[in-house]
Amino acid sequence: MNPADIQRLNEKPTEPQGDSDEMIVFDYKARVKALQDIQSDTEIVRDPDLKQAVLIGRAFLAKWKDAWIADDPDREPLFQRWARESKEIKEEAEGIPGALDTMRKQFNDYSQDPSNRWEKYNQYRNQRKQISQRAKDLTEIQETTQKVKVGPNLLLVDSRTLDHIATHNEIGIGSVFAKGVDVTKVWNQLKFGGEGGAYTVPVPNAGYNLVLPIDKAKALPDAQETSVEKDERGTKIEVPAIKTSAPLAKFATDQVTFIIRPSNPDFLEPDLKQDPEIMSAIENGTAFSLLTAFPGDPNIPPASQWNGQFAVILPS
Predict the structure, then answer these.
(1) Contacting residues for 144 by C-beta, under 8 A, at least 6 apart
(2) Within a 10 A sphere around the Cβ of 135, how many other Cβ atoms?
(3) Are 293 and 162 in contact (CB under 8 A)?
């Protein structure tokens, strides 16, 4: 066995390192693999001191893993997720397959060449840095979708939907939330199913119902016709608007409307299609997606379907 290997085994074990939880898990797995391979070396089998050093290293890593997970239980799924994400990285990321192939070759070299095992391990460890950014990207994709258990159903909430909902806070785009209203605090009150639809939740002082049928809008005090643009899934749509001398308080509402539909796997991010919980819920008809939320009337159709029959209210 290489003297450098023996010296390394006699060193005090150190904690896995990385610039993210994903990379720390990757480093942990590489270290465990390194010790497993070294443990199979015939010199280790014959030398009780070296064998004990490997066992100490493996015990240290096992104890570290338990403590690391206990500190944050959300880390545990990372130990099962890496293999799947590595496959997705290979399939999806331009330039990454070559890095992965090189990394695998170095890992194999490191496993098969007992004369210079630690150097090969270092090459392998350094190579993984090339996929660090893509691993972070995959994590960010996963984090853009929340899985919310609501009764028997699983509600999928994309962060881009929440970003759109957050735009309902300025006069001129439609109904607006009152300051401090957080839809994430009330969706556990929802009851939905079947083909989905519009569902309301009572929320005191939720906001202001600023979309009305055109005839009611024109009947407001000092009504003046104009137009504004509404955003619908990234498309700007010009719609009627009515300026009025009526105060904002006149349009106060105590309800929030959620638009919810059954989740369609065709529109899921690739990594979400690999989530057993999500796919099982889709198969069982209990997976739903939040499309939008706003204060006020649940019977308002999408802006693209107004056909001049509704108007945005611009109060004084």
Answers:
(1) 158, 159, 160, 269
(2) 23
(3) no
CA distance 162 to 166: 6
Q: What residues form DSSP beta bridges with 58?
A: none
Query: Please, are residues 132 and 263 in contact by the beta-carbon 8 Å criterion?
Result: no
For residues 224 and 209, what is the distance between their CA atoms, to the nearest angstrom? 18
Burial of 232 from C-beta contacts in 10 A (0-12 / 13-18 / 19+): middle
What is the full per-residue pLDDT of the chain (316 aa) written as tens digits? 444 554 455 556 678 887 778 778 877 887 777 777 666 666 555 667 667 777 777 788 888 888 888 888 777 777 765 544 444 444 444 444 455 555 555 555 555 555 555 555 555 555 555 555 555 554 554 457 888 899 999 999 988 788 878 877 788 889 999 988 888 888 889 999 999 999 999 999 999 999 999 999 999 999 999 999 888 877 888 999 999 999 999 999 999 999 999 999 888 877 788 888 999 999 999 999 999 899 998 888 888 999 999 999 999 8
Question: What is the per-residue DSSP string for 148-199?
Answer: EEETTEEEEEEHHHHHHHHTTTSTTSSSEEPTT--GGGTGGG----TT-EEE
User: Which are the contacts of 87, defined by CB distance < 8 A and separation ≥ 6?
Assistant: none
- Domain locations along the chain: 3-139, 144-314
Token pair recorded at residue 316: 């004084």
Is residue 29 within 8 A of residue 82, CB to CB? The reply is: yes
